[in-house]
Amino acid sequence: MLAGLDGESASDLRGQLASAVADLEQLALGLFPATLGGRPIAVLVREIAAGMPVPVQIDVEGPVEDLPPGLRALTYFFCSECLANMAKHSGASTATVRMNVTGGCLTISVGDDGRGGASLASSRGLRGLADRIEVAGGMLSVVSPPGGPTRISAEIPAP
Questions:
Q1: Span 4-20, pLDDT tens digits
Q2: Which of 6, 20, 79, 151 has the most CB atoms at less than 10 Å from its CB?
Q3: Which residues partner with 61 through β-bridges?
């Protein structure tokens, strides 16, 4: 469709698409987007939550900001993926994000009061997220009965 367009609008659109593709490549590699690297993870998750179509409560316990960069990135991607799925599929009216570091373990969960039915088998995004969690030595859990609610949790060793 873009091939048939010309002029400044088409050029702007091509630039925006190129930028989006570059961002997706970074996400696929599991890297923090460069503009987010030095910011507190709780702030980043609150920014994601602010863009959701429903209210999202954020609960943070323990030294989450002291996590190494890889676990901070994993926390960001976990929250981003789960909240995007909630917004797209659940029909929820509220959601909750919990992040907790205690006893050498990072626990992250995203829950919503939507219609349920989420599963690793039916979601490539959740399957990819589970793979990332497992590479970090953790486990992903999806509890989402038909009719809801849904809770997606991860437990990951944290130094």
A1: 667 777 777 777 777 77
A2: 79
A3: 100
Structure tokens at 7: 């002029």
Amino acid at the residue 27: L
Q: Which helix (H) or strand (E) holds 109?
A: strand 105-112
* Helix ranges restricted to H, 29-155: 41-50, 69-85, 124-135
Count of other CB atoms within 10 angstroms of residue 70: 14
Give the Å distances, CA to CA, from 41 to 12, 63, 69, 155: 32, 11, 10, 17
Rounded to whole angstroms, how far apart are CA atoms 50 and 158? 27
User: What pTM does this model have?
Assistant: 0.77
- The sign of the torsion formed by the CA atoms of 59, 65, 67, 72 equals positive
- The residue length of the chain stands at 159
